[in-house]
Design goal:
alpha/beta, 7 helices, DHBP synthase
């Protein structure tokens, strides 16, 4: 495993090369460190295996723009409202995938949905700009605390990662909030997980179009 400072001249090129080879790498975001791979069947299976995560949980995609989101998902007006309010930032939107999407169903846990986030961090956005959406999840074994430093990633996942991009301690330290805007929730989104963005802020952005998961 190689560890590179995010400021290193070769960091982006080496991360791109590793991802193109189908490897899983660790990258910083503003919330927590993440493990990332190209959204293809074999890399996604490796990502799920190293997290010891149930395949039915799904894996989010990190994107660089709302335009990238529109290329792979349907964005109802409520999702557009939330994206305008909180992207880039710590919000993951669960959306119906476009009918012409060829992304693996494993990303949605077997469902015809995708979780998208536009992070407020240069590293994942630059990679998504160069490669397209990245499959990503928090850099920790499921059930353990998410990594907020590169050393935490190294301590827990050094034997299964090929590269760690070190950007120092994260700014946030709390995983993203997750809001379902798919299917019937397109009209009245449901907060599935409260995280970096408070439910009260989501409530304020949506007005009456708000419910929370039990």
């Amino acid at each position: 495993m190689e560890v590179l400072l995010s400021s290193a001249a070769a960091a982006t090129d080496l991360a791109v090369a590793a991802l193109r080879r189908g490897e899983v790498i660790a990258i910083p975001t503003e919330t927590v460190y993440g493990v990332a791979a190209l959204p293809l069947p074999d890399p996604v299976e490796r990502l799920i295996a190293l997290k010891q995560r149930s395949p039915d949980k799904g894996i989010q995609l990190l994107i660089d723009s709302i335009d990238q989101a529109r290329q792979i998902c349907l964005l109802p007006p409520t999702a557009e409202k939330l994206a305008r309010a909180f992207w880039p930032g710590g919000l993951t939107l669960v959306l119906d995938r476009r009918p012409d999407s060829d992304l693996p169903l494993l990303l949605g846990g077997g469902r015809a949905t995708l979780g998208l986030r536009l992070p407020d961090h240069r590293v994942p956005r630059e990679l998504a700009r160069l490669l397209g959406p990245l499959a990503a999840s928090s850099a920790n074994v499921t059930g353990r605390p998410p990594a907020t430093t590169a050393q935490m990633v190294i301590d827990s996942l050094s034997d299964v990662l090929s590269l760690v991009v070190d950007d120092g301690p994260v700014r946030g330290g709390v995983s993203s909030s997750v809001v379902d805007c798919s299917g019937s929730a397109a009209r009245s989104p449901v907060v599935l997980r409260e995280g970096a963005i408070a439910s009260s802020a989501i409530f304020a952005a949506l007005g009456r179009d708000y419910t929370s998961a039990p």
